[in-house]
């Protein structure tokens, strides 16, 4: 009976009811589409970053930095002593006994593969074009086991590093900027004075712009020579069985190795923070839309109460309780919320599919063909539950107001 | 409104009219009898007190019932008719009559609708069963309202100025309906200014200033 009355009342104001439903629909659709877009973008970035650079990286720097000598000698900060021209100690940065550490890591549970590497910055020159290159010296088989750089190769072959003398694999961005194509010879010079020519044997494209525009790979010993770091390993990259657990593995490994060990989350904390802010903004925007929709529901229900005061009195006179009247109005809100969010979920899904097929070239932090969409069941559930809940809250006030009318006062007032 | 020393018993099958000037308390008495209103439990300074008055409906003291329980009593035992017909305009004539039956839950939906149409038929309105309430004439609406009051076979039919908003012809029709209902044993209490309607009852209670001043049997 309560549903019967609710539905009939809603139908009596079909146009307003449809507007309310549309309000809920729009907010749910927006939420679904926006979260799918954000997630698509975030997922792509994470996967590509993680897979191209390893889940965990051990660096050659000890976690704690050495305090300057004066501060160690004189604890009193007001001491009238000053030492000028203090420069960082000229220490050779390296991971000691990398072979032993690698062997230990390989035996650790949860670790799938490890690869040693030496990194440094070089100037790459091709003709008149110059750019800095973050060069990574690798053992190709080991690096291919840790990262997916092998499948990101768009020209040439990662394996050719081994066969070609002084071969280098560069990112697509680097190749574009320099204008150096496959088999072109580029010049590489290091700040420490090393200089060599190298042949481009491969070009990779991970889709993550900072990587594609700044990274190159060479053989480990070539880089060691070039950077004047003979026999030095300054990084170890690690692949785990589950990249989401990288943080806890990193803590264990750091305790074991004694070197700064970064999970991908730590290495990309800045980006992850941006993603988090994006997510928050998405939630705020859709919440605002939902609140507007809720006000629509509040409005239509208050109207429905005010113009049905006589109905409420008569319903009570023939036996409906306060609870019954409350429910009649809450049900109206529920129907609006339910229909609105169901349509919203459907439209959201369609929007996601539509955007996915949109032929747009995206090139920002991440480069891709078309918009990246990543849907999560949880987002659909959140949208559904949140919209029903908000509309329900909006319905409570008018419903309680309706239930409060004293039939005697209403009937006497009409006399 | 204050009622003073009112002691009124209405027996099964009686047809009673309550008359009196405006403000004499007759409507208040009617709403109290029907459990639509209840004696105040706070005085003018909002202090709690226990009213010494009590209303018994079909032998049951309503003093300690919760609002929800009292609503159920109204649903099952009482049929109200008001001066303004108060039909739900989005519903058809038959649906208006069926709503109290839906609430009672004694019959299936289908049976409720069949009973509603049968009630309409008693008042020569069967052809209007599927018509929206707001598309009926004033006299028709009041007849539908009476049919609705009878929907759950109430112990008593309470009417507050049932002809107050009707022309002479329709007032006659309504008065005839009450007469024939009373003849069939339906207990009826009518509050009215309409002397001719009041005199059709078999007992007339006169109120003045919150008290009953006369209670006479009519022949």
Summarize, please.
The complex is a heterodimer of chains A (415) and B (219). With 415 residues, chain A is of the alpha+beta class. Chain A has 16 helices and twelve strands.
Folded structure, characterized:
The complex is a heterodimer of chains A (415) and B (219). Chain A starts with a helix and ends with a helix. By secondary structure, chain A is an alpha+beta fold. Chain A is built from 16 helices and twelve strands. Chain A folds into two domains: 192 residues, no CATH class; 173 residues, no CATH class. Chain B is built from seven helices and eight strands. Chain B is 35% helix and 17% strand. Chain B has a single domain, classed as Rossmann fold (3-Layer(aba) Sandwich), CATH 3.40.50.300. Chain B has a six-stranded mixed β-sheet, sandwiched between helices. Chain B has a two-stranded antiparallel sheet with strand order 2-3. By secondary structure, chain B is α/β, with parallel strands linked by helices. The radius of gyration of chain B is 18 Å and the shape is globular. The model of chain B has no long low-confidence stretch (mean pLDDT 86).
